[in-house]
From TrEMBL:
Signal peptide segment: none
Protein origin, superkingdom: Bacteria
GO biological process: regulation of DNA-templated transcription
SUPFAM superfamilies documented for this protein: Ribbon-helix-helix (SSF47598), TTHA1013/TTHA0281-like (SSF143100)
Residue ranges of every copy of the HicB-like antitoxin of toxin-antitoxin system domain listed in the record: 4-124
Protein name per the record: CopG family transcriptional regulator
Species annotation: Pseudorhizobium pelagicum
InterPro entries hit by this protein: Arc_rbn_hlx_hlx, HicB-like, Ribbon_hlx_hlx, TTHA1013/TTHA0281-like
Pfam families named in the record: HicB_lk_antitox
């Protein structure tokens, strides 16, 4: 299991934001520090899953000294975020979607800095979490097309 540096930022009128110097563009937020840490682990795992699926290399974790030497990081508070996805094997699947929905998924995923697979995994986890937390009946709570 690898540990990556996450940087937490907090403005007076915002949630706790987290970014990853080793993964530019990967950001998340939480309502409190515990939520931010949980969301950071989830965001990092989803992003790395997408990289692995796309056959891209996963960078080695930067040292704390290297991260904090960058002037852009001086306002962040460093935390260690464990990457727990290395033991999970990505499985290729084949699904059928209406072409317009697929285009919407791809556009949304790209705007969020995600791969199609990363976005679909995040959406599925979100829906399953909502159903498990009393968010509704999964038989009637499908992703709208």
């Amino acid at each position: 299991m690898r540990n990556y540096i996450g940087l937490i930022y907090k403005d007076a009128d915002s949630d706790f934001g987290v970014s990853f110097p080793d993964f530019p563009g990967v950001v998340t937020a939480g309502t409190d520090l515990d939520d931010a840490r949980h969301m950071a682990e989830e965001a990092l795992a989803l992003h790395v899953d997408g990289l692995l699926e796309d056959g891209e290399a996963i960078p080695e974790p930067s040292t704390l000294d290297a991260v904090m030497a960058d002037p852009d990081n001086k306002d962040g508070v460093a935390i260690l975020v464990s990457l727990k996805t290395e033991s999970r094997k990505a499985v290729r699947i084949n699904i059928t979607l209406p072409e317009d929905v697929l285009k919407q998924i791809d556009a949304f995923a790209e705007a969020q800095g995600l791969t199609r697979s990363g976005f679909l995994a995040r959406a599925a986890k979100h829906e399953m979490g909502a159903a498990n937390n009393g968010g509704g009946n999964t038989k009637n709570h499908a992703l709208s097309a």
